[in-house]
Predict the structure.
Amino acid sequence: MDDEIQALKKNDIWDLVPRPINHNVVGCCWIFRTKLHANGSIERHKARLVAKGFSQIHGLDFEDIFNPMVQPATIQIILSIAVSSGWPLHQLDVKNAFLHSHFSEEVYMEQPPGYTDAQFPQHADSSFFVHHTIASTVYLLLYVDNMVLTGTNPVLIKTPITRLSKEYTMKDLGSLHYFLGVEVQHNSQGLFLSQTKYALDLLQRADMIEAKPISTPFVVGQHLSTIGKLFSDPTLFRSFARALQYLTITQPDLSFSVNSICQYMHAPTEDHFRTLKRILRYVKGTVHYGLQLHCTSSHELLAYSDADWAGCPNTQRSTSGYLIFFGANFVSWCSKKQSTVSRSSAEAEYRSLAITTAEVAWIVQLLRDLRLPLPSPSKILCDNRSALFMAVNPVTRSRSKHSAIDYHFVRELIANGSLKVTFTPSHSQFADSFTKGVSKPQFLLFRNKLHVIPSTTFSLQGGDRGRILS
């Protein structure tokens, strides 16, 4: 606690003033946490003084409701470039990162119990620091207080580290081994990303550490609905569902099943909870699985787009799914229910194609910012010939006015030569498992093609253990 108070003093967080009468005063509290090593031993005890932000009112006490964070796809792409180029990966931590910016609002917070006026600083300067820059041949990924640096020259990487250390209190963690709850292991093929410790903690909290494993996370042909008896503890359901969402960072094979249960977080039924427990049983059998990034010389973008037409029994909406490869590495994926009802399977597939195209266009622009132009146009594979015909044939415009925006968006990129859309048979459509429950042989085949494989070693590195379980 003394270290936390000293950090608040050093950064001049607030002015001590009499309690105002006509302003909302935000309470505060202490949060204590025991940080452990991977083997379960105590690393250190940590205390944080936090404001009770739930007592603030949007539009009165604050305006912004989100902060920019580095996207998971950006992390995958940067790591893929680094491992393919043989660049070093360095990890840093910014101490008290939340105290290094400026407030434009005037906020009043209560003095915490147990401390006198003399122990508090007399100046105000507090905010949430998030920054993400990529400059020259040094790439910097920053997520609040977690930072990864890579680049062509190890000496050049030390320059931003030195400059940052002059401005902030930094903790040098050495070579990248743990980032945002993801364990990073170097192997002969490249980098192996996993969340083994996170998965084990999740199973332990669910009291399923001894559960019988199962080979697939979702039943073939199953479609969840709102029919059924409500689950008695929706807060527990939401907690596990959110935790499973974070596990998809390194286990994308969970994407469809997790997305399916998350659609009912507002009012889960007992059937939904049984489905959640099935996913946890699958996790039990795959705790040592993760995502393999390979050393590859290819910088081509290849995407798969698919849709399950009218799969939702309640709304008759379709489910879109896509996955994108950068060279040999799987870098971006999505499983999501469409926002509108599609009147045909072709329309559902075309909407999914438009969503995939938007993600591909974003990645192309990101690679341009990284000064890595693509050697050839991006390619999207789709298993619906009607959707492909609509994408390349301008004659269909008058018959598809209801999807005109999607149509023009995809059509424009195809016309200027920056995108190719081609057919793939359904048995080779890897995105199929992102739109529906598939058979065990098909699921295992697709999982292997996505490079979701078991780790060659079960040793774990220490680090800042997952924050999503609370």
Notes: Residues 299 and 327 are 5 Å apart (CA to CA). Residues 291-433 form a domain with the Nucleotidyltransferase; domain 5 fold (CATH 3.30.420.10).
